[in-house]
Design goal:
- The protein is an alpha/beta fold and about 325 residues long.
- It is built from eleven helices and 15 strands.
- The protein has two domains: about 240 residues, 3-Layer(aba) Sandwich (Rossmann fold); about 60 residues.
- Helix 5 runs parallel beside helix 6.
- The chain is elongated and about 80 Å long.
- The two termini are about 25 Å apart.
- About 5% of the residues have low confidence.
- The structure holds adenosine-5'-triphosphate.
- The site of adenosine-5'-triphosphate has 12 residues, from strand 3 and helix 1.
Length: about 325
C-alpha cells in the first residue's frame, strides 16, 4: 500500500519494486488464520505506512477483526508473518505494544466505577506511566476525548458514545506511535461519530499512524488516507484512497430509448461508447460530460437521464457488499 495501488490483485508488490520505500508502521505477509473449517483470513499482505490513516473496509465476517487481533498479537496466526512497529508479533509484543493504543472490543470497564476510576485502573497497568504520573495522564486523556464533565459519573450510566470515548481515552493514556480502532463508530449517533472522527484527525495531525476498521465506505472516505478492502478473508484492493476512488474509467451513463443511434453518433465523434441494459455508457477518459450530452442532443437523441458511473472503489465495494448487508 506504500507506493502502488492494487485492485483485485490480492497482492501488493510495492516492497519488491524499485519504488522508494515508505517506512511502515506495520506489515503482514502471507497472513492466514483458520478456525476449524473456517478460513477467517487468507494470505493477507498488508502495508500500513507510517503516519497514514488506514481504513480496513469489508462486509461483516470478511476478516477485519481477526486481522487486527493478529496485528496486536492477541491471536496467533495459523501461517504468515506480522511486524508491528518493526517487531515480529506476537513474539515481541512486550516491546511493540506500549507504543500502540488499541480499541478492539469493549475493554473490561467496571460498570459501578466512574469513568475516571476505570481509567485509573487501566493506567496502573501502563508500563510507561509512573504512579506519580497516573492522575495527570488520566485527566489529560479524559479531556482529550471530551469526558472531563462526566468523569466522576458511573460507567453504567454512560451513553454508547461516551463508552466508546472512554475506550479511546484508555488507548490514549500515553503518547502512541500507532492507534488501532476496530469499528469505533459502530452504533454511534452522528454527534458521537463526529467526535471519534475529530480525535482520529487530531491523531493524524500529530503524526500517529491510525488503523481503523469499518464496514462503511462513507466512513472510510471521510476519515482515511489509505484503504485496504477485505472480502472473505482476502485483500481485494489496497492503496491510497484518492487513487482507488479514481481507479476505473470515468464514464457517463445515459438512459435513452435511442441507444443504438446514441452509440453510433458518439463513436462518429470519437467518444468511446457501448450499449448497456438501460441505454449507453460513454467513456469520459478523453472527453467531458457536457460534450457527450451536446453531441447526443445535437443528433436528436432523447436523453432521459445522465449520471456519472460510480468510481472504482465505490463500484468494487458495492459489488462486494451486494446482498450481504
Ligand atoms: N474465534 C473464532 N472462532 C471461530 N470462527 C471465528 C472466530 N473469530 C472469527 N471467526 C470467523 O472468521 C470469519 C471472519 O471474522 P471477523 O470477525 O474477523 O470478521 P469481521 O470482518 O471483523 O466481521 P465483523 O464486521 O462482523 O466483526 C467469520 O466467518 C467468523 O465467523
Amino acid at each position: 500500500m506504500t507506493s502502488t495501488t492494487s485492485v483485485e490483485s490480492g497482492a501488493d508488490v510495492s516492497s519488491e519494486t524499485s519504488a522508494p520505500a515508505v517506512p511502515l508502521a506495520a506489515r503482514t505477509r502471507g497472513l492466514r488464520k483458520v478456525y476449524g473449517s473456517t478460513v477467517a483470513v487468507d494470505h493477507v499482505d498488508l502495508d500500513i505506512p507510517q503516519g497514514a490513516v488506514v481504513g480496513m473496509l469489508g462486509p461483516n465476517g470478511s476478516g477485519k477483526t481477526t486481522t487486527i487481533r493478529m496485528l496486536l498479537g492477541l491471536v496467533r496466526p495459523t501461517e504468515g508473518e506480522v511486524e508491528l512497529l518493526g517487531r515480529p508479533m506476537p513474539d515481541a509484543a512486550a516491546h511493540a505494544l506500549p507504543d500502540v493504543g488499541a480499541l478492539v472490543e469493549g475493554p473490561g470497564f467496571h460498570p459501578f466505577l466512574s469513568g475516571r476510576d476505570n481509567l485509573l485502573r487501566f493506567a496502573a497497568a501502563e508500563p510507561r506511566l509512573s504512579s506519580a504520573g497516573i492522575p495527570s495522564a488520566v485527566d489529560a486523556a479524559l479531556e482529550r476525548v471530551g469526558l472531563t464533565g462526566a468523569a466522576r459519573r458511573r460507567y453504567k450510566g454512560y451513553s454508547l458514545g461516551m463508552k466508546q470515548r472512554l475506550g479511546l481515552a484508555s488507548a490514549l493514556l500515553v503518547p502512541r506511535k500507532m492507534v488501532v480502532l476496530d469499528e469505533p463508530t459502530n452504533g454511534l449517533d452522528p454527534a458521537g461519530t463526529r467526535e471519534i472522527r475529530r480525535i482520529m484527525a487530531e491523531l493524524h495531525a500529530e503524526g500517529v499512524t491510525v488503523l481503523v476498521s469499518s464496514h462503511l465506505l462513507a466512513e472510510v472516505e471521510a476519515t482515511c488516507t489509505h484503504v485496504a478492502v477485505l472480502q472473505a478473508g482476502n485483500v481485494v484492493a489496497q492503496g491510497e484512497l484518492a487513487e482507488l476512488l479514481e481507479s476505473g474509467n470515468a464514464a457517463l451513463l445515459v438512459r435513452t430509448p435511442d441507444a443504438e443511434q446514441a452509440v453510433e453518433v458518439l463513436r462518429e465523434n470519437r467518444i468511446g461508447a457501448r450499449l448497456t441494459p438501460d441505454g449507453v455508457r460513454a467513456d469520459l477518459t478523453v472527453t467531458e460530460a457536457p460534450r457527450v450530452l451536446q453531441v447526443l442532443v445535437g443528433a436528436g437523441v432523447a436523453v432521459h437521464e445522465a449520471t456519472r458511473a460510480r468510481t472504482g472503489l465505490e463500484d468494487l465495494f458495492a459489488r462486494l457488499t451486494e446482498g450481504s448487508e
